[in-house]
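User:
I study polymers; will you set down one protein's sequence and backbone structure tokens?

Assistant:
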Amino acid sequence: MIEFFSFLYDQWFLTVPLLIFISLFFSSLSKKGGKKISTHELVSMNNSGSAKLVDIRSSSEFNEGHITGSINIPFPDFERRHHELPNRDDISIVLICEMGSQSGNAGEILQKSGFKDNLILSGGISEWRHNNLPLV
């Protein structure tokens, strides 16, 4: 292990750009498709009516349990059906998937189509279940 750190120190001119690249890469991944929000933020937004919840899981997963008020547009259909969503300044689109990882791809589709306020449920339905929040 000491040899590894010695190598990094000796090769600082390679190490520094690598660390910068890694940090920028993970930073861009965390913002992909929209801002991530917590389950508590989603509950507040849903209760105030300021969000349209879009579950991008498969129809069978959606039918097994989903967040109250959410609609289902499965990800494979998302590109051709996203026009069904309201593109208004007063309503945020909240994307929900199983783990929070596929929502970024759907958010990028919305961004390319001019949607400005896209949000992603951090951790997806798995995080929702983990927090013992209700599904219908």
Remarks:
- The helical segments are 2-10, 12-30, 39-48, 59-64, 75-81, 103-112, 124-130.
